[in-house]
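FORM 12-B: Structure-to-Sequence Request
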C-alpha cells in the first residue's frame, strides 16, 4: 500500500484497496452466517471475515506493512450493524 496507516486506523483508500467495503464485508458475513461458519463472538467473527476477504484478494493482503489490528477493529466496529441488516433482510 502506498499510504501509511494513520493513528486512527486505515484510510479510506487502504480499505478500498483491501476490499474492506461495507458491501464486501456484509456479503462475506452473510455467506459465512448462512454456511453456519460465523462465530457469535465478535472478535472471532471479525477474524473470520478478514480471513475470507484476504483469501479473495491475496495480492493486496500480501503487503507486509498491513496493520491487521486496524483491519480487525474496522470489521468489529461494523459487525453489529451488518448482522442486524442481514437478519432484517433474511426475514423478508
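FORM 12-B RESPONSE
SEQUENCE OUT:
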Amino acid at each position: 500500500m502506498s499510504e501509511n496507516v494513520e493513528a486512527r486506523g486505515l484510510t479510506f483508500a487502504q480499505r478500498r484497496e483491501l476490499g474492506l467495503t461495507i458491501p464486501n464485508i456484509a456479503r462475506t458475513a452473510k455467506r459465512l452466517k448462512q454456511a453456519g461458519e460465523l462465530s457469535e463472538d465478535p472478535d472471532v467473527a471479525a477474524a473470520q471475515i478478514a480471513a475470507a476477504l484476504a483469501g479473495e484478494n491475496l495480492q493486496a493482503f500480501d503487503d507486509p506493512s498491513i496493520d491487521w489490528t486496524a483491519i480487525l477493529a474496522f470489521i468489529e466496529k461494523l459487525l453489529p450493524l451488518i448482522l442486524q441488516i442481514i437478519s432484517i433482510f433474511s426475514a423478508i
